[in-house]
Write a structure and sequence with these properties.
Blueprint lengths: L2 H15 L3 H31 L3 H4 L1 H30 L12 H24 L5
Helix pairs in contact: 1-2, 4-5
Amino acid sequence: MSITKIAEVANNVLDKFVQDKDLKEQLSHDLQKELISLDKAQISLNAEEAKNGNWFVSSWRPCIGYVCGFSLCTHYIILPIATWIAVVSGTDLQLEKLEFDFSQLTTILLSLLGMSSLRTAEKFRGVHNK
């Protein structure tokens, strides 16, 4: 959720509960300043994580992507081919009985893809191009 969306929701709440127009504008302005400062803090944290020499600290996001990619590859490419080879060769490995909870994986994967697509959209719009 972007800062503007959060500010809109907060302004709607302020409209309902704060009657004084000047106070409402001051609270809205203070809220936007706080949200912007939080966003800047997150950006600086992300930059520090990326600069960190420790592989574990700087690579946890790509690592999650690799795990999701490996899991999808295993489930949709490797296991079907291995099952086909087992059937053709006459062995009974029963690989189809392996359970795969796709709901948890898709939650993580779609979150990552959603965030990366938002970042791509930001790059096209020129946001945070410093």
